[in-house]
Specification:
This protein has helices at 15-25, 47-59, 74-77, 98-115, 132-141, 156-170, 210-220, 224-232, 238-253, 301-320; strands at residues 5-10, 36-41, 65-71, 83-86, 124-127, 151-153, 177-178, 181-183, 191-193, 198-199, 202-203, 261-266, 279-287, 290-293. The termini are far apart. The protein has 10 helices and 14 strands. The chain binds ligand NAX.
Length: 326
């Protein structure tokens, strides 16, 4: 058994938090030999509910949970943490557009970026709370000298959604689909790059016709979150928690040989014409807990235009929060 690692979860009493904590507690993320100490953050009105969640976690008697601490102070919750799931934020409700979310949630990530300066040297943090990419950018700008590749935005849910659409079209399992990269923002401007996706090692475009990809696939994957809100009256929770586990598990264990993971990563301006100083999802590999973007994928002009459109979307969000970037 390894020494325990410290894992922070913000918004821990919320819907995603409720699904996420039990997956972490039972070892889905770090494996059966890796104990964890949970450091949970809520805002004061959420603390009572969080106490109830902690009671349930205790009642699970999870052998891998070696401690649970709760706080409404980011400096306390992030003290010494190795991994941080930044979930806490206001979810998008019916009728809300992303601009509403940018205004409501951006300021939260100034304080959380500062709080992350208290984390362990090997910190890796994942922003789930929307607008995830721009919140991650705000946190990075407020986290002092923290290396820019340590705070990510989650697009793994979009990757999972895309894999599942392809799998169900072909009647295979999602595990048979690989190389399904999401480019750009976790918003409808994202570009799910189907042209390089593979099914059982062969290009998906050799097995499904182009019209389905450019029609059904492109209209379903980027708008899936909205469809779920319409159907269940609340935003995705269990699938988002599952994707967050997938993301952090990939950071911990690495990508399988030949496989990529979609990661919203700080852009230095050197790849695919993506401007510098935005958090933009690209295909990455992970080895020894180091994230490396895959930089040699060749895109056609149609895909290049999609990649640029999502960058433009993120530049717009960046302009809207410029006063929070320090
Ligand atoms: P809930 O409203 O159920 O829970 C959010 C929790 O965060 C609440 O308990 C609230 O008290 C807490 N909170 C608010 N401000 C906080 C702060 N400053 N510090 C700590 N905690 C704080 O929302 P939930 O359904 O859990 O969704 C959380 C976030 O995930 C939302 O922003 C939502 O839009 C986003 N999502 C992101 C996804 C992605 O793929 N990146 C997909 C799912 C989801 O839409």
């Amino acid at each position: 058994m390894n020494a325990p690692i410290k894992v922070a979860v913000t918004g821990a009493a919320g819907n995603i938090g409720y699904a996420l904590l039990f997956r972490l507690a039972c070892g889905s993320c770090y494996g059966p030999d890796q104990p964890i100490i949970l450091q949970l953050l809520e805002i004061p009105p959420g603390m009572k509910a969080l106490e109830g969640v902690v009671m349930e976690l205790m009642d699970g008697a999870f052998p891998l949970v070696h401690g649970i601490e709760i706080s409404d102070n980011a400096d306390v919750a992030f003290d010494g943490v190795n991994h941080a799931f930044l979930v806490g934020a206001r979810p998008r409700g019916p009728g809300m557009v992303r601009a509403d979310l940018v205004a409501a949630n951006g300021p939260i990530f100034v304080g959380q970026g500062k709080g992350l300066m208290k984390a362990a040297d090997d910190l890796q943090a994942l922003v789930v709370g929307n607008p995830a990419n721009t919140n991650a950018l705000i946190a990075l700008h407020n986290a002092g000298d923290l290396p820019k590749d340590r705070i990510h935005a989650m697009t793994r849910l979009d990757e999972n959604r895309a894999k599942s659409q392809i799998a169900s079209k072909l009647g295979v399992t999602p595990g048979q689909v690989s190389n399904m990269a999401i480019y750009g923002n976790h918003s409808p401007s994202m570009f799910p790059d189907f042209a390089h996706a593979k099914v059982n090692g062969k290009l998906a475009t050799e097995q499904i016709d182009k019209d389905w990809f450019e029609g059904h696939f492109m209209s379903t994957v980027p708008t899936r979150g909205k469809a779920i809100i319409t159907a269940r009256g609340a935003s995705s929770a269990a699938s988002a928690a599952s994707a967050a586990v997938d993301h952090m598990s990939t950071l911990w264990h690495g990508t399988a040989p030949g496989e990529i993971a979609s990661i919203g990563l700080y852009s230095d301006g050197s790849n695919y014409g993506i401007p510098a100083d935005i958090v933009y999802s690209v295909p990455c590999t992970v080895k020894d807990r180091k994230v490396t973007p895959v930089t040699d994928i060749v895109h056609n002009d149609w895909a290049k235009a999609k990649i640029k459109a999502s960058a433009d979307d993120l530049m717009g969000e960046r302009a809207a929060v410029s006063e929070l970037l320090g």
